[in-house]
């Protein structure tokens, strides 16, 4: 395979001809070729080849070519010769999401992130965003949202992409029959699709608990626990978290504590504030949970509570934002430390938490050794990502871990998210990591679409 950059130009001729500069012909190993098949995404068309004498690497496309496979714009892009008479432009990257479809905010609260992704991606690829309703499976095309040079969204119809980055925002929609069918259709067409769907907490716990290399990082957990299991975990650890298996953003989480002399305590979020209740017996605690949750208790996990390091008497955990890079290796791209608000069940910012740099969070507990401790946490995060991937049936390219550390330097994994939020990158000290996250997404798209590799001179 030959891979190179080139400058794409459009000409007004109606015929299906491509004009290739001598230098580009050499880079693509096309010397003497009279015809090629030009490909964009899943679109493909035969074209006659004409050589032109012009310095540099240039590709001129007549209107007949441009319109036949819907090439979205001129400019610099990758070109690869797949050694079978097919020359491919691209990559053509699709970002799958959903929203209102309005002109200014087509993807709702995710529009800002998608705009940033498209802006950076335009420098390296053809990239667009789309919703499931934008796909025409019969014609194998997508009516996608591209970003213009002025930063405005414009609609253009293009072939099905080379790779799909999944950022569908809703668990309900992500697990719907229609979305399952959509994913399977992409796979049948051999179009790489990552990340497949949201993780289920209980599935991840069960998977990792059975792997000796990582089980020591997983707190004791039970899916759909019995009353006896909840009582036993409180007896052993005096603290537990009771949380929905398919939850996110800290919603629906209860903190249970037990003190032999004082009884049982329940902390949770109620009406925008933190609530704390005391019970004289375990039975009364369970009756309260049953009254609040009813049948929903069947979808809950109980997990051992950990006495984490603290700052200002508030526990701290860490969000590790992981990415696959252009070499298909897991790397830590961003780390944010989250300090819980006073009396809060979780460290989520919406529940009164605050965001810190990991260095500041660790220095109070570990002093001069904080750098060494952080490096160990990074090492463990990579091991955890590799472990999940090894047991996952589908492509993963991004994981968000919520990790904690106790005063004995034991690292614990509380959550793994296949579509992690990006709130840590709002911290002024983590904005460069936010840019690096975008770059890693694009690098991995190039890898999956086979546009990542040695570029011929």
Description of the molecule:
The chain has 457 residues and is α+β, with helices and mostly antiparallel strands. The chain is built from 11 helices and 26 strands. The strands form 5 sheets. The protein has a 7-stranded mixed β-barrel. It has a 6-stranded antiparallel β-sheet with strand order 15-20-16-17-18-19, sandwiched between helices. α9 (358-366) packs across α10.
List keywords for this structure.
457 residues, alpha+beta, 11 helices, 6-stranded antiparallel β-sheet
Overall SS class:
alpha+beta
Percent in strands: 25-35%
Structural Rg: 26 Å
Number of helical stretches of at least 4 residues: 11
**Oligomer state of the chains in this structure:** single chain
Into which percent range does the helicity of residues fall?
25-40%
Extended strand count: 26
Intertermini distance: 13 Å
Shape: elongated
Main β-sheet description: 7 strands, mixed, barrel
> Are there runs of 5+ residues with pLDDT below 50, and where?
none
Mean pLDDT over the residues: 90
Major beta sheet, strand line-up: 1-5-2-4-3-7-6
Describe the structure concisely for a colleague.
With 457 residues, this protein is of the alpha+beta class. Helices cover 26% and strands 34% of the residues. The protein has helices spanning 22-27, 63-68, 111-121, 171-174, 177-188, 201-209, 227-237, 282-293, 358-366, 370-391, 431-448; strands spanning 2-10, 17-21, 35-40, 43-52, 58-61, 75-81, 86-90, 92-96, 126-130, 135-136, 141-147, 153-159, 163-166, 193-194, 221-223, 239-244, 254-259, 263-270, 273-279, 300-304, 310-311, 314-324, 330-339, 354-356, 398-405, 411-417.
